[in-house]
Amino acid sequence: MPTVQHFGDKRLRMHALHTEKFYTRHYSIKLTIPLDAKFITSTAVLPYLWLEGSKSYPSARKIMQLIDSLYGTVLHSSVSKRGGLQVVEISAAMPYIHGNQENRAAMNQLEKLLMELLMAPATNEDGSFLSTHVSKVIELQKNRIRNLHDDKTTYAFEQAMERASRPLPASLPRLGYLDELENDMAPLLYTAYRRLLENAKIDIYVSGKLYQVEDMWIDFQQKLESQLSMTNFLNPLVEPIQKSHMENRAELRDIEYQRVNQAKLNLVYCSGIGYAHPLYPAALVMNGILGKFPHSKLFVEVREKRSLAYYASSQYDSMTGFVVLYAGVQPGKVGEARLVMEEQVEAIQKGKISDQEIQFTKSGLLNQYKQLEDQPASWTEIDFNGQLTGQKLTMEDLQKKISDVTVEDIKKVAEHLVFQQEFLLTARREQV
Amino acid sequence: MKRTEVKSLNLEIYSHQLSNGLRLVCIPRPGYQQVYALFSTAYGSCDNSFRTESESEIRKVPDGIAHFLEHKMFEEPDEDVFSRFAKYGASANAFTTYLQTSYLFSCTDSVQENLNVLLDFVQHPYFTDANVEKEKGIISEEIRMYDDHPDWRCYSELMKAMYEKNPVRIDIAGTVESIQEITKDTLYDCYHTFYHPENMLLVVVGGIDPQQTLDWVDQNQQKKSFPAFSPIVRQYPKEPETVYQQQVLHSLDVVRPKCLLGLKDFPVTDGENMLRQDWLTGIVLDGLFGKASVFYETFSQSGLIDQTFSWEYEVTKNYAHAMIGGNTESPQELQKAIVETIERALSDGIEAETFERSRKKLLGRIYTSYDSLASLARDMTSYGLQSILPFHAIDVCSSFTCEQAEQRLKELYSKERVSCSIVKSL
């Protein structure tokens, strides 16, 4: 693995991975702040508002024209959740055209643009956001929220995760609340913008063919430090959701009816084990055996042996510590599928794990981590998880720890699993 | 091995045809840990009426059988194929398109072992009555999953509206009903027709040594014998130039309606021209409907379109079309706006500045897409199965003129070749 250079240590940090092998240079600026119900909706609009215009490029079209002329650089902004944290991100991927004299200048132009989008959005003379930009992004954000409903698999999965985390901040909806989006929210957006800039931790990731990384760091640092205080900021770390959270809530099974051909069954278990936990590598292996791979228990038992589903998997979220089992099944066979899925968890808890399952899962995971070196976006995500949890694992460490996981470790992880929430999206009986 | 240098991409492509007819293409990417292999047959969902040159009768097989076959290839009498890959730390998958079926793995170790697993399982069919029946339940769920997916439904209904006879109008997976007709005998029949090495292509990209890869593949193939290849005669019904239906409307349990406009284009049989058409059309559509276009600015501001709005273009030897659209509250209005934008460009021409920007953009996007070994291998395969080397596209792209772009738009658009698919809320 090429060496990753880290700069900065408190509020502002840059992480650089230099490699000659890519045609693309990737940038990602991530601003992290604790989720707060009061600001969830307004903060979630900001990354999209940034792409509506800046001081020098006052409209979305002007920005896109520049970006396209930089050899089709891809500019993207998004908002996501990591446990109880909200992450607002702006990223870019720029082609490195072999032998092109313009490469260096184009990259400088892009770096300048990224800083400007973040620090100098298009505003009126009094500093407020332009009303045309605000009304447009509000409408687009409403559509973004409405669109969530129409991808049934993702919708059901996110509903399960949100309901399982209630009433903690992690349960707040990623894109905010539809009924809080108002055309006159420009002042609130500005407050949320200042709050984000003044309080967020800022991580800048760059990878690809990098020229003079130190100069790049100094440049970013000067631009940000000249406008932001580097001493007052929130420094949250992600903590997994603990089982004690469940003491005040009953076991919940929620059902939503839609006119669908296929039911989406999601079962959320709480492990209490997060990225920084000593059992984290074992949790990865446990989830691999349970449902991550085609040799996993869920794939074999639900799909291959019983033909109940096309997909039957599990996903482990190292930020919340949740393990989610999910499958798309015929509405009339949900009961059978649920039973088989629950049995697989029980099997691992009882230690019914073969040497072959462990060996295959470890090989599969190690293969994935080795491939990260070829995938800058995935590398960024793994490193960022470490930044968020305060547990900085190198890829080599993690691979070694995965190799050392024992059947006892896996059983221990499974014993931590407590059923937390079911969310079922299905059709009414008369519609089947 | 034949070595072709693509200077613009700083890439070397190695190709070789083995004595049994199998074509191998290797593209080393220095510094990559990953190796990605794609083993494909020129057999897709469209190949449902065919014979071999040694036969006189055309055979008609059930819709969805190429995809069904892809699922069943993973079944072996002793050990499950996924387990064999898992043993060597590879992740494996497969997919079927209208024109090809591909099996793949990616790994970072044990490349020879994984290549052997890939070649051996694809070259060893094992179908029984029981395992065929079992798969019907799994594939039925796959079909139901897609039936609930509004983007997929909008696309697939548009294909049915644009094409009257071409088998691309049939869903790749078939229907829950059509797959019930599939038996182990029909599967073997299709397998033996289309899975001959002569009809297949193996593409291996990433951290590889091409000569060593060829040696491994050759060693594997030397151990197997295949009957003489009888060339395949595919029967495609003659497709009218005009669309079958101008508008189709379907209702699903969705919050946001969808509208997709299809422009039926002319297929191209010659490889070089196919690439030219593919690229030039992309430049035209990006200029008219990309995020830097007047259209995008006007209608995202008015609220007619949202961030789901996009376009795509596909051209093959058998079919060609553009698709433009996304989510909208007013499908009819969006349809009108798209058509008016095209007609305005036809009368006013395409701005030189817009053309130049879109050309630069497409050039850059090729570079970035080839950082993904999966994209590199898939591109090489889909063009390679049609005997085209895609990488010359960069040089081809540089030679385009704005006038050629305008001419392309004239060829692409005709009122009789436009269909619209709308998915609305129940």
Task: Describe the structure concisely.
The complex is a heterodimer of chains A (432) and B (426). Chain A is α+β, with helices and mostly antiparallel strands and 432 residues long.
Topology:
The complex is a heterodimer of chains A (432) and B (426).
Chain A: E1 4-7, E2 12-18, E3 24-34, H1 40-50, H2 60-69, E4 74-82, E5 85-95, H3 103-119, H4 131-148, H5 152-165, H6 186-199, E6 201-208, H7 213-225, E7 252-257, E8 263-270, H8 280-292, H9 297-305, E9 309-317, E10 322-329, H10 334-349, H11 355-371, H12 376-389, H13 395-404, H14 407-416, E11 418-426
Parallel strand pairs in A: 2-6, 7-11
Antiparallel strand pairs in A: 1-2, 3-5, 3-6, 4-5, 8-10, 8-11, 9-10
Chain B: E1 2-6, E2 11-17, E3 23-28, E4 35-41, E5 49-52, E6 59-60, H1 65-72, H2 81-87, E7 91-96, E8 101-107, H3 111-122, H4 129-147, H5 150-162, H6 184-194, E9 200-206, H7 210-222, E10 232-234, E11 247-252, E12 258-264, H8 271-289, H9 294-302, E13 310-315, E14 320-327, H10 331-348, H11 352-369, H12 373-384, H13 393-398, H14 402-412, E15 418-425
Parallel strand pairs in B: 3-9, 11-15
Antiparallel strand pairs in B: 1-2, 2-3, 4-8, 4-9, 5-6, 5-10, 7-8, 12-14, 12-15, 13-14
What can you tell me about this protein's structure?
- The complex is a heterodimer of chains A (432) and B (426).
- Chain A has two domains: 4-225, Cytochrome Bc1 Complex, Chain A, domain 1 (2-Layer Sandwich), CATH 3.30.830.10; 243-431, 2-Layer Sandwich (Cytochrome Bc1 Complex, Chain A, domain 1).
- Chain A contains 14 helices and eleven strands.
- The mean pLDDT of chain A is 92.
- Chain A has helices at 40-50, 60-69, 103-119, 131-148, 152-165, 186-199, 213-225, 280-292, 297-305, 334-349, 355-371, 376-389, 395-404, 407-416; strands spanning 4-7, 12-18, 24-34, 74-82, 85-95, 201-208, 252-257, 263-270, 309-317, 322-329, 418-426.
- In chain A, a hairpin with a 4-residue loop joins strand 1 and strand 2.
- By secondary structure, chain B is an alpha+beta fold.
- Chain B folds into two domains: 2-234, Metalloenzyme, LuxS/M16 peptidase-like (Cytochrome Bc1 Complex, Chain A, domain 1), CATH 3.30.830; 247-425, Metalloenzyme, LuxS/M16 peptidase-like (Cytochrome Bc1 Complex, Chain A, domain 1, 2-Layer Sandwich).
- Helices cover 41% and strands 21% of the residues of chain B.
- Chain B is built from 14 helices and 15 strands.
- In chain B, the strands form three sheets. Chain B has a seven-stranded mixed sheet, with helices on both faces.
- In chain B, strand 5 (49-52) and strand 6 (59-60) form a beta hairpin.
- The radius of gyration of chain B is 23 Å and the shape is globular.
- The mean pLDDT of chain B is 95.
- At the A-B interface, helix 2, strand 5, helix 4, helix 9 and strand 9 of A face helix 2, helix 4, helix 9 and helix 11 of B.
- Chain B: InterPro entries: Metalloenz_LuxS/M16, MPP/UQCRC_Complex, Pept_M16_N, Peptidase_M16_C.
- Chain B: Residues 63-175 form the Peptidase M16 N-terminal domain.
- Chain B: Residues 182-362 form the Peptidase M16 C-terminal domain.
- Chain B: It comes from Alicyclobacillus tolerans.
- Chain B: This is Zn-dependent peptidase.
